[in-house]
Amino acid sequence: MNDQHDPYPPIEDYGLIGDCHTAALVSRHGSIDWCCLPRFDSGSCFGRLLGWEQGGYCKIAPSGEGWSAERAYLDDTMVLATSFETDAGLARLIDCFTMRPGGADQPHRQLLRVIECERGEVELLVEVVPRFDYGEVHPWLRRHGERLWSATAGDDAVVIGGDLPIVATAEHELGASVTIREGERARLSLSYRRPESIANEPPEPIPAEELDHRLDATITWWRSWSRGARRTAERDAAGAQRSAMVLKALTHAPTGAIAAAPTTSLPEAVGKGRNWDYRYSWIRDSAFSVRSLAELGYEAESDGFRRFVERSAAGSADELQIMFGLGGERRLQEFEIPELEGYRGSSPVRVGNGAAKQLQLDAYGELVNQTWRWHRRGNTLNDDHWKFLSSVIETAAERWSEPDAGLWELRGEPRHFVHSKAMCWAALARGIELAEETGRNAPVDRWARTRDEIRSAVEEQGYDAKRGTFVQAFGAPELDSALLLLPTFDFLDYDDERMVGTVKAVREELDDGTGLLWRYHLDDGLEGEEGTFLACSFWLVECLVGQGEVEEARKVFERVTATGNELGLFSEEFAPDADRMLGNFPQGLTHLAHIGAAVSLGDS
Description:
Distance between the termini: 44 Å
Structural class: alpha+beta
CATH architecture of the domain at 11-225: Distorted Sandwich
Oligomer: single chain
Number of strands: 26
CATH topology of the domain at 11-225: Beta-galactosidase, Chain A, domain 5
Largest sheet: 15 strands, antiparallel
Radius of gyration: 25 Å
Helix content: 25-40%
Strand content: 15-25%
CATH class of the domain at 11-225: Mainly Beta
Shape: globular
């Protein structure tokens, strides 16, 4: 267990469950310590991951001490099974958000926890401690007959049912002690409701048979989705498929938006202020995600996000932001919750993200790239989308020479980042190809002149000929792992001598010595030293494969995949010295980069 002075489990101790509307993190010891209802970006109802004493949780685990736990996902699902072994027996806890066909519009909004005894008997302690609005509100608990309760606060309510003997253990807490014997099964259901619906239609218990049916339907749903994959090389197929399922779980089904992560404020440096809210849809990250999913054969997710961005931007580049809320919301004002201490004392806890209003020029290139890939897969571009895309290309042409916040969303003075400029080049280059291949009317001569002007600027001001490497920004010597992305949109070939030199320089200056890369080494104005950035190391794998260094690429790939937990989940960053995950978890950007690296190795 954990030191009494630091009760927070390591980030890698958590598993993810989700229903393409929201998600929860379940600890190795059977505790749901993070869950927001009804959406990823709603206030938490179980949130002690960011405030151990006040955040709330839902725990099912053996009573007493001396027990052990092992866990795994049921094959090809996001259904998590945790096995508890005691001296007296072996029990299995199955956790999921229930799924059903058509659930995009009418989800169950239900957390289901099922206990099965496989040997002997096991005494379990059940604790349900809901705390709404990031731990701010202690709910009103009401009983609705035997083994059925509701927890209500303001605009939120959860109905707690099943066949466990749940009772009030304190004024705002529920619990039960139960002994389950071999062959027996027990269930705990937590369903989100609107408070007024409880007043108008008092909750009814869900029969055990129906709960079992929903579990079976959820397993079937995930396995059906998983069968749509185009497998990578067998050696890496299982890991890539797990990453694909994580990306699917991070998708907001009603709109097609993809959350960067299901969490906020898990720190990039423990005890410091490098804490951000990632429960929103970044154009860049989501475009990367749909590229990775499309490489595995998941076309619907790609098209869903393409249409989400067009709607959210109101069909015009003038209304485009670098990120949106999962429903297309534009106002993502950032604020702090001082009442929460943060994970292991890492304050502040932030809600919202001020980077939403930054200028990040690479977003234009990512959008055009995404449509270009979609077109190359045989899809037809309609007039409305071409009009929108043309406005994006024109904006890239007009603004490419401006400084911006860059891929890493630096909050200091804007700079002329090489990656940002190259992505504007990609917007023009891909736009020209699209216009010519689809017969669209477009100012291709003017676009071509701007495209060539951007390339000249990058090659003249962003390349250090003496060191044989591209640099992070014009007029600055620092390197940046984002430079590893230059071949992915054909700005350079992987084996171009300038790219070979850039890979060599990045490894010399930003590698921790084992294949894990830092994003950059520079004073970014934030307190604390962040960890290595896992997506960058997977990008390195693709570069090494492209340069014919397959054996070395495999070594790096194995090193980076070793930073994941036994469930195949990756965080944003990793602290090599402490052998610990850092940052929001699980991180979509890392998982999509993992897929890209696995596919490149499979194709080599």
